[in-house]
Amino acid sequence: MAKLKVYEYPHPVLKQKAEKVAKVDDKIRSFLDDMLETMYDAAGVGLAAPQVGVSKRIVVIDVAHPDEGEERNPIYLVNPEIIWHSDEESCQYEGCLSVPDQSAEVSRYKQVRVQYLDYNGKEAEIMAEGLLAIALQHEIDHLDGILYIDRISRLKRQMLLKKLQKMRQEEE
Ligand code: NI
Hints:
Layout: H1 26-41, E1 46-48, E2 58-61, E3 75-85, E4 89-96, E5 99-109, E6 111-117, E7 123-129, H2 130-143, H3 154-171
Antiparallel strand pairs: 1-2, 2-3, 3-6, 4-5, 6-7
């Protein structure tokens, strides 16, 4: 396994619509392993392939809390698609490894059902609520070139990006 470089806003790969994967083969599996390692290393709960510079419809998610004694529970999703969602939405704080150290409240569907190909290329479905539902919507957005900051008001986005810029300048 290898740790991958995480691309940050405003890298253009984050704005691209990612391409479907034709077949889940060993190359894709090895990439899934690398993505998971990269996500764990960055203490993220989700990572989409465009965030590591690969414009393909691939996502890894793990919303378990190993620091609270929970077992790791990685979910590998290839070509994920939301096939159902609740009418009800809820608003929660989200962050993103591609927009480091920032967060904002985003409205998402409370529940979603997602169809995807698993690690072995088998068709699978997952019904999710809570943090997992948020993570699924956030990561699938990445595959369509959408960041969570695209889903907040223009004013909030400008403030957030200003903070990000300031933080980067201080790091230099
Ligand atoms: Ni993200």
